[in-house]
Specification:
The complex is a heterodimer of chains A (about 450) and B (about 325).
Chain A (H helix, E strand, L loop, with lengths): L1 H36 L11 E7 L4 H17 L3 E7 L5 H11 L5 E5 L3 H6 L7 H6 L8 H6 L1 E2 L2 E2 L2 E5 L2 E6 H6 L11 H11 L1 E3 L2 E4 L10 H8 L17 H17 L1 H12 L13 E5 L2 H8 L6 E5 L11 E3 L1 E5 L7 H11 L2 H11 L2 E2 L2 H9 L5 H13 L3 E3 L10 H12 L5 H18 L2
Helix pairs in contact in A: 2-14, 9-10, 14-15, 15-16, 17-18
Chain B lengths: L1 H21 L4 H35 L16 H8 L2 H32 L6 H13 L3 H10 L6 H8 L14 H10 L3 H11 L4 H9 L4 H29 L3 H6 L14 H11 L3 H29 L3
Helix pairs in contact in B: 4-8, 4-9, 4-11, 4-13, 5-9, 9-11, 11-14, 13-14
Classes of the chains: A alpha+beta (about 450), B mainly alpha (about 325).
Chain lengths: ~450, ~325
């Protein structure tokens, strides 16, 4: 009797667990039926594919635009439906990594441009070369951006947007100081001269600080600017940290710190950090090096009568080049997803000139597609300032370097930064610091071999 | 002779135990055992699935070049060799963490005992004070760290403003590598409320007559504190020290939030062990190396806990 009871219990259990499966199966059947009855989907082969697209655009114009763009894509495309999933900035890539390892990755994801090779090497991204071979789209993008998506000469991502570091300067402050607002500093010497003219000291504090190189731009950008566009690693992948030009650049930055005083600098820095008021908008800082996307900040927060100009980063000396640095994001298909072809079609859509132009127009991002930026620079729907920004970006990208993470030392940056910090704390000279950094990173490269 | 006797006694005991084991369980005993296992199964399953298996995986992974997605080759002791002979940041991170543990553990213990003693009085409004001091322990996470970043701001922060009233020009705290760790330790002291609550409960269990007889004997507050209160609460101090040592070694969140995405702060002064490990695992994809690091941390904490347990009988009064 007991046995029998147990058995019926088992059957009940089996029935209970099976119910949701059966229900799910019914559900699928229903939706399939709906699909075929949908007059929009043509042909029997037109199987519906749903794609999951992850990005970190959670609010504001970027989110609105991407959602509108996806809506249009879904409306015009009969077989593919894209679902937009927002993942917070701090989580998205760790989550993606876990999802890839767990075999349930999204179909398309916005990724960091600098680590494409790393992911390609670790089998985290789908090789897109077969698609590129069919239709070579590499020429549509800025060459240095396309370079970042190649691993062993094959493409693993498509660039989406980018950025570049430029100099913003306050036109009113220039006029007030008797400087010509139409000729921003072109060299480091001019930058220093103009900064001195713009400086206004009052007692122990500053009413106006002309310029400080390390605000909003890292030491890495100025060293790269000084060294003909060579970052901490040269083109062959050798460690190129203690070059004479970079030592020069670091000494130059240290001179700026000495001029204003280390305490003054940290104090102001801490205040900027807490984001109370933007020092450029408030007029405390007259010139500011920053990524060009800072324009969106000015648009949103600066008063209407705030007048500013943009210029390339000054060059170390005449002829050394206005080298700048940039970053950006790419679109990737994680490894082992079920619909790479459809996913690529969606990526192709997002990186096409029209869609790129549309995204840029609403978000003021600098796009990866060259033609899109050129169109935006002439787009009369944008105001003059926005056109100026796109024009500047387009021009500046000719001398903008992207610095992908080197595969043989992915974690090198903190080693370099320690040494640079030591120099700014007065513990080491510029030469010693960069020498030590060179050795540290060479040692790291060895560890990874 | 005595030895032989002891031996035979031992043998007897062993055979008794064997018999006990052999003895079949009655159905009711079996049923009881099943129910018992059923009731502890959530813990056992949780422990096996979420602690033991991952730890085993981590142990095995520490001898490989595992990178989460594409490779997992056995590379022997390479990870450990790299850790102790080549990785500069490993030493830095270990130093930073040790510094933090050495100051944080005793200071929070002293701080919470001190607060608990102060709040163990029968005066008006004591409940309000207890709540106020306990409150920070409930608040946690990013919001608190952001708040403290503002409090610690060199020129406009509340802390330096108060210091300036007494003529001290405060340091740059989170911007000066010499002050970043002290800043963090001070910040952590703010939330001693959790441990304080434990002490408060224990203090109220100390028998009143001990104090009464001490008073009759003429012992003052300090003597009472050191000769009655402190010895009576040593078990809880012990518990608190052991758990907070383990916790302090795992400091991560604070540094991750306060140093812009885990960069380690000025001159890597806030690059704690777990932060370095995290960077290795999820930034450089050196998961095998990170697993090896976690094994070393496990060993360090295990050793310290063991030492703690060994030393306990000397100062803990049960």
């Amino acid at each position: 009797m007991g046995m029998k009871n147990n058995k019926t219990g088992l059957y009940k259990l089996a029935a209970l667990t099976a119910t949701p499966l059966i229900l799910a199966a019914c559900g699928n059947g229903n939706s399939d039926a709906e699909d075929t009855s949908n007059p929009g989907s043509e042909g029997a082969s037109g199987e519906q594919v749903e794609l999951e697209f992850w990005s970190f655009w959670g609010s504001g114009p970027r989110r609105d635009t991407i959602e509108a763009i996806i809506e249009d894509f879904n409306e015009t495309n009969d077989t593919i439906t894209v679902e937009y999933v927002y993942q917070p900035w701090g989580d998205i890539w760790t989550k993606a990594l876990a999802a890839i390892a767990g075999g349930n990755a999204p179909d398309v994801i916005v990724q960091d441009i600098n680590s494409v090779r790393q992911r390609a090497d670790a089998n985290q991204a789908t090789n897109l070369q077969a698609f590129i071979d069919e239709e070579d789209i590499s020429g549509e993008f800025y060459p240095q951006l396309w370079e970042t998506v190649l691993f062993e000469d094959e493409a693993y991502a498509v660039p989406f947007n980018t950025d570049t570091q430029v100099l913003f300067y306050n036109l009113d402050a220039f006029e007030e100081a008797g400087l010509d607002p139409d000729s921003p500093p072109a060299t480091w010497d001019e930058l220093e001269e103009m900064a001195r003219a713009l400086d206004q000291e009052s007692g122990e504090s500053w009413e106006q600080i002309g310029f400080y190189p390390r605000w909003n731009i890292g030491a890495d950008v100025w060293t790269l600017n000084a060294d003909g566009g060579t970052s901490w690693f040269d083109e062959e992948g050798n460690v190129a940290i203690n070059t004479p030009e970079k030592v020069d650049a670091l000494e130059w930055m240290l001179d700026w710190q000495d001029y204003y005083g280390r305490d003054t600098i940290t104090q102001y820095e801490a205040e900027f950090g807490s984001g109370v008021a933007d020092p450029f908008i408030s007029g405390l800082v007259a010139m500011r090096g920053q990524n060009i996307n800072y324009y969106t900040n000015l648009r949103e927060n600066a008063p209407d009568d705030f007048r500013f100009g943009v210029a390339p980063l000054p060059e170390r000396e005449e002829g050394s080049g206005n080298w700048s640095w940039g970053g950006g994001f790419v679109l990737e298909i994680p490894e082992n997803t079920s619909h790479p072809e459809e996913s690529y079609e969606f990526i192709r859509y997002l990186t096409s000139t029209d869609v790129q132009e549309r995204f840029g127009m609403n978000s003021f991002d600098i796009m990866a597609n060259v033609e899109a930026n050129e169109n935006l620079a002439d787009n009369t729907e944008l105001d003059e300032r926005a056109q100026m920004i796109y024009d500047m970006a387009n021009q500046n990208l000719e001398q903008t370097v992207i610095t992908p993470v080197p595969l043989n030392a992915p974690d090198y940056l903190s080693l370099v930064n320690t040494q640079i910090d030591a120099a700014f704390l007065g513990e080491k000279t510029a030469e010693e610091a960069l020498e030590d950094a060179q050795n540290s990173v060479e040692n790291l490269v060895e560890q990874h071999q | 002779m005595k030895a032989v006797e002891e031996q035979s006694q031992f043998k007897k005991a062993v055979s008794e135990v064997r018999q006990l084991r052999k003895k079949k369980w009655s159905p009711s005993q079996k049923k009881e055992a099943m129910w018992g296992l059923l009731f502890v199964s959530p813990f056992i399953i949780g422990f096996l699935g979420f602690m033991f298996l991952p730890m085993m995986f981590s142990f095995i992974g520490s001898f490989t070049n595992y990178n989460i997605t594409s490779r997992m080759d056995f590379i022997g002791l390479t990870n450990f060799r790299r850790m102790f002979t080549q990785d500069e940041l490993f030493t830095t991170s270990l130093y930073n963490t040790a510094y933090y543990v050495i100051f944080n553990v005793p200071l929070t213990a002293i701080g919470s005992v001190f607060l608990a003693v102060l709040l163990n009085r029968q005066i008006r409004g004591i409940r309000l004070f207890r709540t106020i001091f306990y409150l920070p322990a409930v608040l946690s996470g990013v919001a608190v760290y952001v708040l403290w970043m503002q409090l610690l701001s060199p020129s406009t922060g509340l802390i330096n403003t108060i210091l300036s009233w007494v003529g001290i020009s405060g340091p740059s705290w989170l911007f000066d590598p010499q002050w970043t760790k002290p800043a963090l330790i001070i910040m952590r002291l703010w939330s001693v409320g959790g441990a304080m609550l434990l002490y408060l409960a224990t203090l109220q269990n100390v028998p009143k007559q001990l104090y009464e007889s001490a008073e009759v004997d003429g012992a003052g507050f300090t003597r009472q504190f050191f000769h009655i209160t402190l010895p009576m609460i040593t078990p809880i101090i012990f518990y608190d020290v052991v758990t907070s040592t383990i916790g302090a070694f795992q400091i991560f969140q604070e540094a991750y939030v306060m140093t812009e995405g885990g960069t380690g702060g000025p001159a890597n002064s806030l690059l704690f062990y777990n932060l370095h490990m995290w960077n290795q695992a999820f930034v450089a994809y050196n998961m095998g190396y990170a697993m090896a690091m976690s094994m070393i941390l496990f060993l360090i904490v295990l050793t310290l806990t063991f030492i703690n347990l060994k030393l306990a009988p000397r100062w803990v009064h049960y």
